[in-house]
């Protein structure tokens, strides 16, 4: 869809974002004319090399990395998370075999951690409270001399709750473990400073900040002991072999530059829309609740749940009206399980099934929010009238 | 993801509601799994004179419920017992593979309602 195609409203931007046209123009040059390989010594190669290093500088700047070389380009956030977990755990295996992570991580953290378990590591999924905040006391208790790596999401994209990273970092470093932070959903909409927050590894996604897909980054603090997951020609300091995706990197870098320049304005506008939607989707509808934290929350994230109805049927009802959203319901997932993130908040499966997740984007307007607020009460009512679970007092 | 026919039944479900004083009631599914449906039947001269459903669940659960009531209405109990998950799915122009098992329970709910009627009437 054209992002402003007549009457279609996308409220599912965490699933995919359109690439900023300022970015596409820059990328085209590196696909058409400046198509060199940075490993080549000739001028065409060196032109690509220059773009690569300039890209590294831009991404480093966005998260205040101490130097550009700390940024490793990957194929995206999933690969960055895989590299962080496997690369650090395996490289430091002689020091310890325990990994700590939270129970509200993306599957690209959960599944590499499960693989490490099968390979003899102990992994602890730390609990969160009912607003999604990490239990710091439990983190402190579980950290021992055998722990080499702690991986915590900056903010989970399903519930929006922003974790106390700086506090976690203090605890982790007292035990001399490494802290990896998955900032896929957060980076570009809230300020992140890897030096101030003392983060050892940070996953950054390009598409989540309107850059192209197929490219991402991993910040690795100088001196961090890590090994590669993909071996080959030794690109990216030997940590990520494969000819560099220069067009992607140029696009990612431009996205980082734009995000840095426009973040405060962008976040302010998203936060306003977010809070308006949360209020408008909950207040007029009985038995409607917010998922995640009310204030320590990503600016673009609206996550609510409705009792007695099921999420996929909410999504279908919205889709019919040209509104695109997402849900943590089992029926809306590939695994037919309700979202582990919603269950980690202490919700029952039948509560998680009724969730509606919206992620806002640059193209959303107040009119979009108003339309959703207008149609939602009737959608919920229609499905509740159909549901055998709806109590009598809610029926028409 | 869904066929036009599924979407049409999701949009305009047939026979949605409850029958007070139903002759048979059948409920299958579990809200923990995300699908729960109840069928209510009125029986006259061994035929399903009226049928209604209530469903909690995804689009497929709602559409199969609606389609099942449409297939069952007016049929003899014996004929209605022959309505299967597969025949409901076929009548809807097919269902996505993942939906065949968990959300396609309406035929079971219908059979359960008929059994309930037979038990109550010693038939």
Strand order of the largest sheet of chain A: 2-8-7-6-5-3-4
The CATH homology group name of the largest domain in chain A: Type I PLP-dependent aspartate aminotransferase-like (Major domain)
Task: Please count the beta strands of chain B (DSSP E, at least 2 residues each).
Answer: 3
Oligomer: heterodimer
Q: Helix content range of the residues of chain A, please?
A: 25-40%
Shape of chain A: globular
Question: What is the CATH topology classification name of the largest domain in chain A?
Answer: Aspartate Aminotransferase, domain 2
Structural classification of chain B? alpha+beta
Number of domains of chain A: 2
Strand content of chain B: 15-25%
Q: What is the third-level CATH name, the topology of chain B?
A: Sufe protein. Chain: A
Q: Could you please describe the fold and organization of this structure?
A:
- The complex is a heterodimer of chains A (396) and B (123).
- Chain A contains eleven helices and twelve strands.
- Chain A folds into two domains: 9-17 and 263-394, Aspartate Aminotransferase, domain 1, CATH 3.90.1150.10; 21-259, Type I PLP-dependent aspartate aminotransferase-like (Major domain) (Aspartate Aminotransferase, domain 2, 3-Layer(aba) Sandwich), CATH 3.40.640.
- With 396 residues, chain A is α/β, with parallel strands linked by helices.
- In chain A, strand 5, helix 6 and strand 6 form a beta-alpha-beta unit.
- The longest helix of chain A has 37 residues, at 246-282.
- Chain B is of the alpha+beta class.
- Chain B has a single domain (4-118), classed as Sufe protein. Chain: A (Alpha-Beta Complex).
- Chain B has helices at 4-11, 59-72, 77-81, 85-91, 97-102, 106-120, and strands at 24-30, 35-44, 47-56.
- In chain B, helix 1 packs across helix 2 (59-72).
- The chains are: A alpha/beta (396), B alpha+beta (123).
- Chains A and B meet through helix 8 of A and helix 1, strand 2, strand 3, helix 2 and helix 5 of B.
